[in-house]
Structures are given as C-alpha cells and as structure tokens.
Specification:
The chain has about 240 residues and is α+β, with helices and mostly antiparallel strands. The chain has two domains: about 170 residues, 3-Layer(aba) Sandwich (Rossmann fold), CATH 3.40.50.12660; about 40 residues. It is about 40% helix and about 20% strand. The protein is built from seven helices and ten strands. The strands form three sheets. The protein has a five-stranded mixed beta sheet, covered by helices on one side. Strands 2-3-4 form a three-stranded antiparallel beta sheet. A two-stranded antiparallel ribbon has the order 8-9. A hairpin with a 2-residue loop joins strand 8 and strand 9. Helix 4 runs antiparallel to helix 5 and helix 6 packs across helix 7. It is globular, with a radius of gyration of 19 Å. The two termini are about 25 Å apart. The relative contact order is 0.16.
Length: about 240
C-alpha cells in the first residue's frame, strides 16, 4: 500500500533519530517503476522517476522528490543508507545529484553531445520534409541548452547531503529493469547480478562492483545499472554495506 510504503521509508530517519550516530541502514526495493511529468523543474529530461505500490491505481505513485525528502534530506552527517532500487527507470529514483560512470568519474551534462544529436534530428526532419518535427526538435534543443546545466548546478546545491546515501539502481532513467528467473526463483535481473558479483568477489571498490554488476548482465540484458551518491564519492574505496 502507498501509505504503508511511505511509512516504511519514514522509519529510516526516525530510527536514526533514536540512535547515536554513526548509524547504518539498508533498503532494497524490487518492484515496478516509471516516469511522470516533472512539475518543479528539477529534472533535466523533464520527467520525475516514480515507484508503483500495489495500490497505485487507487492511491497513486510515489515520486522521487518525495522519496528524496523522506530518505535523504532528513538524514544527518554520520548516517549511512545503502539503497538498491531494482525497478524500471530507477537511475535517479532518490534524486541523488552525484552519478558515477564505470570509470569512477562524475557524470556531468554533456551539452555539446546533446546539441550534436539535436542538430542531427533537425537535419533528418528537414530531409523528410517534416517542418513540424524541425521546429519541435529546435525548441527542445534550445530549452535543453538554456536550462540543462542550470538544473544540474541547482540540484548540486539543493540535493547534496552530509549523510552517506549510496544508491545502486537497476537501470538508467530511460531504461527498464528486467525480471529474471534464476534456479526457479523469480527475482530482478539487477538484484541477481548484484548478489552474484559480490559472491564472486566480496572485496571490491565501488567502481569495480559497478563494472562487475554490468558484466554479469552483459549479453543477457540491455539495462545499465547506475551508481549515485548524496555527496562526492571516492569510487576507489572498498565498498561496504
């Protein structure tokens, strides 16, 4: 139920408040996720990420803004939360502003690359005689160029947290996370890959584990698991729960 899910999320900061820091908690969510139109301008692509509780048809979905408010913004320094979101479109399900690549470096908006892709779209529309498509692509490109970096910088200012919140997600925001059946047991593909990678080598750095998880999925599933954090992270450090 949506209310029960939110209540469960809310117990994390409550538990922290009752404990002496440092405090550590783990959260794993395997379920359905999606996207909805962003209403407050904090998403570069114009869409918020959501999860769907079992009663979402009656109670609605839960938006990443709310999950960030409950599980990230309310935590204090010295608190550690490790979250695994094995759901579709979960790349930024907690709106953590520091997203890392498989090289262990911070991903930042590549406006030049996006501009090139946008210009290619305009040329393609022109070749087809699609003037409406040209105008739409041009407007989208202009909006991205004028707001994309501003959104990124604003999120760094407003969503950075002194707490250690680490999130492993099943896919990019634009991708789905697949179901799997391993040994007759239903599970999420990313959850299976995460456990398998750690069983093979429990002593891995953050960036090594990210690559190991992707290697387990390679050739079987197209999704690309993501690693993000609430503050800058040295991805060469040994991963600990």
């Amino acid at each position: 139920m949506q209310g029960q899910t939110i209540l469960c999320f809310s117990t994390i900061p409550v538990g922290v408040g009752l404990a002496h820091t440092p405090f550590s908690a783990n959260l794993r969510l395997t379920g359905h996720g999606g996207q909805t139109k962003d209403l407050d301008g904090d998403e570069e692509d114009g869409y918020d990420e959501v999860i769907y509780p079992v009663d979402f048809r009656q109670a609605g979905h839960i938006v990443d803004d709310e999950m960030h408010r409950i599980m990230v913004a309310s935590l204090q320094a010295g608190v550690r939360l490790t979250a695994i979101f094995d759901s579709c479109h979960s790349g930024s399900a907690l709106d953590l502003p520091y997203l890392y690549s498989t090289q262990g470096v911070l991903k930042e908006p590549n406006l030049a690359k996006e501009a090139g892709q946008g210009l290619l779209g305009i040329v393609s529309s022109y070749a087809r005689g699609d003037l409406g498509g040209m105008a739409s692509t041009a407007m989208g490109l202009f909006k991205k160029a004028t707001t994309g970096d501003d959104t990124y910088q604003r999120n760094l200012r407003t969503k950075t947290s002194p707490a250690d919140v680490i999130m492993w997600s099943g896919s990019k925001d634009t991708q789905t996370s697949q179901d799997a059946n391993i040994g007759g047991q239903a599970t999420g593909a990313m959850s299976w890959a995460f456990v398998t990678a750690l069983k093979k080598n429990p002593q891995q750095s953050y960036v090594q584990l990210l690559n190991s998880i992707r290697e387990e999925l390679e050739g079987k599933y197209s999704q690309k698991p993501q690693l993000s954090c609430s503050h800058p992270l040295n991805t060469n450090l040994l991963y600990v729960m």
